[in-house]
Automatic annotation (TrEMBL), chain A:
SUPFAM superfamilies: Periplasmic binding protein-like II (SSF53850)
UniProt keyword terms in alphabetical order: Signal
Organism: Sinorhizobium numidicum
Origin organism lineage: Bacteria, Pseudomonadati, Pseudomonadota, Alphaproteobacteria, Hyphomicrobiales
Domain annotation Solute-binding protein family: ranges: 69-448
PANTHER family (alphabetical): D,D-DIPEPTIDE-BINDING PERIPLASMIC PROTEIN DDPA-RELATED, PERIPLASMIC BINDING COMPONENT OF ABC TRANSPORTER
Signal sequence region: 1-20
Family annotation (InterPro entries): Peptide/Ni-bd, SBP_5, SBP_5_dom
Gene3D superfamilies: Dipeptide-binding Protein, Domain 1, Dipeptide-binding Protein, Domain 3, Periplasmic binding protein-like II
CDD domains, A to Z: PBP2_DppA_like
Any Pfam family the entry gives: SBP_bac_5
Full protein name: ABC transporter substrate-binding protein
Family per record: Belongs to the bacterial solute-binding protein 5 family.
Location relative to the cell: Periplasm
TrEMBL record, chain B:
Similarity field: Belongs to the binding-protein-dependent transport system permease family.
Domain ABC transmembrane type-1, first and last residues per copy: 96-325
The keyword Transport is assigned to this record: yes
Keywords: Cell membrane, Membrane, Transmembrane, Transmembrane helix, Transport
Localisation per UniProt entry: Cell membrane
Protein name (record): ABC transporter permease subunit
Pfam family, one: BPD_transp_1
Keyword Membrane: yes
Organism domain of life: Bacteria
Matching InterPro entries: BPD_transp_1_N, MetI-like, MetI-like_sf
Mode of membrane association: Multi-pass membrane protein
Source organism of the structure: Sinorhizobium numidicum
Length: 531, 334
């Protein structure tokens, strides 16, 4: 604590001497406290916003506003013909931040990359268990321990990563927050001083903002990194003012106490749009909500039946009632902000009479089914019970009798995986890495039957396309394959796609340069305040 | 007096043991694996599980575990936060001054307004003023804190823009924490405008947290005052021709204050409960908000340790109030 106080004092003094009165401070009213400042250890977006997108960079970055990757700390890369060897050319002259607690003596190089990845991978690495109870959840979650063969330093500016098998989403994975590049020099110093825990408390990286201080549950302070390889930021100071209540965040935004806030209350959005001092950005979030039939159980094993039910759902009415305009009806299993989204596909139209006839033609009479409604609100589905009731009414119109069931959340997730479970399940998904594989294969692939594939749907044509795409590194080629896969999906209708919720970001009118991320991140490089 | 003290202490010890048993059982009664809950590790190999289980002492008899826990608690060891890996007690002492500052302001607010309001209501018994004061007190007493806080923020900060919305001080000020009390630290910082900023940030949370104690104190003062005013010595004083101010202010008030002081003491527990909501809504970095945040973070070690520390603080304050009361009013000692 004493050290922290000294740090506060020193920084305060430094800020004063630098002429704090003229500095440009951007205040972000964040929704919660970060779990820590080592992005590899955690999974929450709140933590990534506070650590990964401020202090750190990755080998690849997501191009602002998209889910496509672009060069980051790796200037370029080549992939061997067999798709197993990735050789990264690192960006020269990248400076680590200089802070009160560390002064780097060298530029970024291959050692930093190897350190950052191997500590998460190798259980005998000295930094593998440096935080008691910490685990590298994302690293394991993306299957990297099974995929990686070796990480080698070719020379100071070249790193070669070998894989055990082809893995197309690999590059996208490296752009994710958990793959942030730390300074090995800083880590070595902490290790020598026996203060390894500090790596998770006082971050130091190559990113656009350098960490200054954190007051638990109240405020995080950063200053612009003057030697940032992407150029110094227009704002001098970045402050996260932690404000957990959405209504209070809105009041602070209105009063000008902060410049931008995440996650507004749905009920406040109209007032925000009406306020002349504010502007509101919105776009479809990287998510989807769906109703998954059990395609192995009659009568849902018949595509005509599934199609008929899809046509019976008044999707717009469901979206309006549950989201009050803050979602769009979904056509495809991937959201429109995702690359390879197939615009050409037409959604099932709402035609109850046609649906009724289709059901009769399929020989289905007096159908009674269970409809599972999630017990919790998720971004992609705010009120599943309400959605289920509307669908119940829709289905009643075509003579289908629906019983709504629900279970405790963990039980719901577990029970809905069962291959022989009854009826149709409402569920959804939020993307992790901006790769279509993360939706199409994870949720609909044959391997996922009995797991994430709640429709228990194994279609050879679809699975072949998705698997082929996974093993191809060429993005244009993959795009084509995924577009075809979506055609198969729509034709076979294992789900009724429900909605993509909107991600809504209100901010002061004078904020410029903020780009909404389809991945739901809040990053403030490139942001400016104009008067 | 000493026997009185011992008597109180004799009640306190079993109470504390009871609370410590509840805190100790907390993790073990939650659904899920206590080892996973306490370590924060969600994916564990059986070996790792056994290792952590051993580290945490889960492989020993439950009684031994409890005694060990109690021994640690008595030495100030309330465990490590699962999230920050820092001792719970350290975090508590960092955040406690913010709660104390807010609670003190709220109590002062409640006393300064509540006692005169109660006295006036008692003197003007049955009048419109009395009914107005008591009616307002009833409303204040039944006001949901969260709603009241939001309402004040929206009206006073949002529409009228008289006070800042939340936090302890404007983020433009940045100075080291010396005492932990923002009003004092802002003066010590020597930065122009810092004290005003800290003060204006205190206004709304003080009102919100002070509302319920204010209502309780006003009602208690009124009834104590009414009782005292009907006593013989007051009538005698009046008959002697003393001014109403002297009768009420000097003779009656002093005696009416005895039950009011107990009431004020009892409000400490109420305050801490209220602080949980008030601090959350005003982003006030004290122990109330800390506990709520810990619930969201699933930091069971903090919830467990924090609750026990707070229970201890409430018990100590109640003990102090009892002793104080015993000093003021010797009759209570028997």
């Amino acid at each position: 604590m004493k050290k922290l106080t000294t740090l506060f004092a020193a920084t305060a003094l430094a800020t004063l001497m630098a002429g704090a009165a003229w500095s440009k401070t951007f205040v972000y009213c964040s929704e919660g406290s970060p779990e820590g400042f080592d992005p590899g250890l955690f999974t929450a977006g709140t933590t990534f916003d506070a650590a990964a997108h401020t202090a750190y960079n990755r080998l690849l970055e997501f191009k602002k506003g998209t889910t496509e990757t672009e060069p980051g700390l790796a200037e370029s890369w080549t992939i061997s013909d067999d798709g197993l060897e990735y050789t990264f050319k690192l960006r020269p002259g990248v400076k680590f931040q200089t802070t009160e607690y560390f002064t780097p003596s060298r530029d970024f190089n291959a050692d930093d990359v190897i350190f950052s990845l191997e500590r998460q991978w190798k259980s005998d690495h000295p930094w593998h268990g440096y935080v008691t109870g910490g685990s590298w959840e994302y690293f394991s979650g993306m299957g990297l321990p099974e995929v990686l063969e070796s990480i080698e330093k070719v020379d100071d500016m070249t790193v070669k990563i070998k894989l055990k098998r082809r893995e197309a989403p690999f590059l996208a994975n490296l752009a994710m927050p958990f793959a942030s590049i730390m300074s090995k020099e800083y880590a070595d110093k902490l290790q020598a001083e026996g203060k390894m825990n500090q790596l998770n408390q006082m971050p130091l990286g190559t990113g656009p903002f350098a960490f200054v201080a954190y007051q638990q549950d109240a405020v995080i302070r950063y200053k612009a990194h003057p030697d940032y390889w992407g150029g110094k930021q227009k704002i001098d100071d970045l402050v996260f003012s932690i404000t957990t209540d959405a209504a209070v965040r809105f009041q602070k935004l209105k009063a000008g106490e902060c410049h931008l806030m995440p996650y507004p209350n749905a009920a406040d959005v109209e007032a925000m749009k009406a306020d002349p001092n504010l502007k509101v950005m919105e776009q479809a979030g990287l998510n989807v909500a769906y109703l998954a039939y059990n395609t192995t159980q009659p009568p849902f094993d018949k595509v005509e039946v599934r199609k008929a039910l899809n046509k019976a759902i008044n999707k717009q009415a469901v979206v309006d009632a549950v989201f009050q305009g803050q979602a769009t009806p979904a056509t495809n299993p991937i959201p429109p902000t995702m690359w390879s989204y197939n615009d050409a596909i037409e959604d099932d139209t709402y035609e109850p009479e046609v649906a009724k006839k289709m059901l009769e033609d399929a020989g289905v009479k007096d159908l009674s089914m269970k409809l599972w409604a999630m017990p919790v609100a998720r971004p992609y589905m705010l009120n599943a019970r309400r959605a289920a009731e509307l669908m119940q009414a829709d289905f009643a119109k075509i003579g289908v009798n629906v019983e709504i069931v629900s279970y405790e959340w963990a039980e719901y997730l577990e029970k809905s995986k069962a291959k022989d479970r009854d009826g149709a399940v409402i569920l959804g998904w939020t993307g992790d890495n901006g790769d279509p594989d993360n939706f199409l294969d994870t949720l609909l692939g044959c391997d996922a039957v009995g797991g994430n594939n709640r429709a228990q749907w194994c279609n050879k044509e679809f699975d072949d396309l998705v698997t082929k795409a996974k093993e191809t590194s060429d993005v244009a080629e993959r795009t084509k394959l995924y577009e075809q896969a979506q055609v198969v999906f729509k034709r076979e209708a294992p789900w009724a796609t429900i909605d993509h919720s909107l991600s809504i970001v209100p901010m002061r009118k004078n904020v410029e340069g903020f780009v909404q991320s389809p991945l739901g991140d809040f990053a403030f490089d490139g942001v400016d305040i104009v008067e | 007096m000493f026997r009185f003290f011992l008597g109180r202490l004799a009640v306190l010890i079993p109470t504390f043991i009871g609370v410590s048993i509840i805190a100790f059982s907390f993790i073990r009664l939650l659904p899920g694996d206590p080892v996973a809950l306490l370590s924060g590790e969600r994916v564990m190999s059986p070996e790792r599980h056994a290792e952590i289980s051993h580290q945490l002492g889960f492989d020993r008899p439950i009684v031994v575990q409890y005694l060990d826990y109690l021994w640690g608690v008595l030495q100030g060891d309330f465990g490590l936060s699962i999230v920050t890996k820092r001792p719970v007690i350290d975090q508590f002492f960092e955040l406690f001054p913010a709660t104390v500052e807010l609670s003190l302001c709220a109590i002062i607010f409640a006393v300064v307004l509540g006692i005169p309001a109660g006295v006036i209501a008692a003197i003007k018994r049955g009048s419109f003023l009395d009914q107005l004061i008591m009616g307002t007190a009833l409303v204040g007493f039944s006001m949901p804190i969260f709603w009241w806080g939001l309402l004040l923020i929206i009206v006073v900060s949002g529409i009228l823009q008289w006070t800042p919305v939340s936090g302890r001080i404007s983020l433009m000020f940045f100075f080291p924490s010396v005492t932990g009390f923002m009003l004092i630290d802002s003066l010590l910082s020597g930065q122009e405008g810092a004290f005003q900023s800290a003060f204006s940030h205190l206004i709304l949370p003080t009102i919100v947290l002070g509302t319920i104690p204010l209502a309780v104190i006003a009602r208690q003062t009124r009834s104590a005052m009414l009782e005292v005013l009907s006593e013989d010595y007051v009538r005698t004083a009046r008959a002697k021709g003393l001014s109403t101010f002297r009768v009420v202010g000097i003779h009656a008030l002093r005696n009416a204050m005895i039950p009011v002081i107990t009431t004020i003491g009892l409000q400490v527990g109420v305050m801490l409960a209220g602080a949980i909501l008030t601090e959350t809504i005003f982003s006030w970095p004290g122990i109330g908000k800390w506990l709520v945040d810990s619930v969201f973070r699933r930091d069971y070690a903090v919830i467990q340790g924090g609750l026990l520390i707070i229970a201890g603080v409430i018990m100590l304050v109640n003990l102090a109030v009892d002793l104080l009361y015993g000093l003021i009013n010797p009759r209570i000692r028997h």
